[in-house]
Amino acid sequence: MTAIPVKTIERLSKYRRVINRLLEKGETYIFSHDLAHLIDSTPAQVRRDLMQIGHTGSPKKGYELKQLKENINALMDDSDGQGIGLAGIGYLGRAIMNYFGGRNPKLTIKAAFDTDPDKINRVISGCRCYHIDQIPEVVKKENITIGIVTVPSSAAQDIVNRFVRTGIKAIINWAPTPLQTPPDVFVESRDITMSIEKAAFYAKTLNSKKK
Amino acid sequence: MTAIPVKTIERLSKYRRVINRLLEKGETYIFSHDLAHLIDSTPAQVRRDLMQIGHTGSPKKGYELKQLKENINALMDDSDGQGIGLAGIGYLGRAIMNYFGGRNPKLTIKAAFDTDPDKINRVISGCRCYHIDQIPEVVKKENITIGIVTVPSSAAQDIVNRFVRTGIKAIINWAPTPLQTPPDVFVESRDITMSIEKAAFYAKTLNSKKK
DNA sequence: AAGTGTGAACCTCTTCACAGCA
DNA sequence: TGCTGTGAAGAGGTTCACACTT
Q1: Which bases of strand C have any atom within 7 Å of the beta carbon of a protein residue?
Q2: Which of A29, A42, A82, B10 has a CA 20 to 30 Å removed from the CA of A201?
């Protein structure tokens, strides 16, 4: 058996979100084409993804939602839960804290780090703030395994080095700069400038196509 | 000649950013392996990308930076400039306005839209705020061709419909919900939950690998 | 000698198409 | 009949490997 494709992992996160909504509404089964519609994908893609995680359905009723949710959880969640540490309490950091807080019971933002003395030791958006020098102790104490970087570009590499040194193995970087990390660290970069410039290019292209 | 791959467009945005920095430092030429290192890519990838846009270098000196910048601009920029409209003035909206303001001379956030009366007609992060009912007039007046959506999920589809109705052809969506759009509209979705859950999965996987 | 330009191989992911099943 | 499960084909993107250039 080969590893599950990255793109499938991404979609499993989306499936789970809509499945939770469906279960709350009292639904029990779903067909691949309906699930596909809800995450803006295709029926063949859904069937292929569920095949990857070994979930099977029936031609008559489709996929059983409760079981499917459990199968996705079993693959994606750590049974002990995982902590998240966020560095950089600006607008972007606060947006993420507000948005993500309490959304996933196995995944909690446990600590925010900054250098601004006005923020340290306060609780902002439900999250305790610490000085970045406290990263080693707090990461250990709170079982933090994921680091979020929302500091300015100039500070990003330093923060990442601190995270990596304490053993963090996955980083999400919103600073518009590439990072040096060891090969066994997963880095996801979300580059805002790049997104906007890409959209601008396609806006231009699509506009020039109209007759 | 076939179209330029999406991934190449993404990297061209990154090349341009580092080229601007190099030009400011007075550099004039660069080799593919050095440029690759700066955006965390490979020499073969750089040569392939520059081939796509018809830029050529010399074995002796590499690629001429000023000319390369101009070639990327010629492909990516609209000579008249393009306006951006942002809907949803929360933390995330402000983060984007602050970060992106003045960064690209051909690409300006011209207007922010919200429904909160306290924000309307004020200038926030250097950007004039309007009520969302004013989208049609402001989009026309300011030549807005790109829409950024940072409203809550429940409001996202309505905002997108308003943008699409005024002729906007490219949308960047930060709300964690799929959008219904006509096929000739480019949509880029930046799903924060998905990013974090993906990172959590790889954190778990990488941690269980250590002996 | 040390780089570029590029056909071809390779890899990853998506879609097709159809056998099998309830 | 209308779905699922899946081998095979296709599309898109990356890397290899080497002829060519200075």
Answers
A1: 1-7, 12-17, 20-22
A2: A42
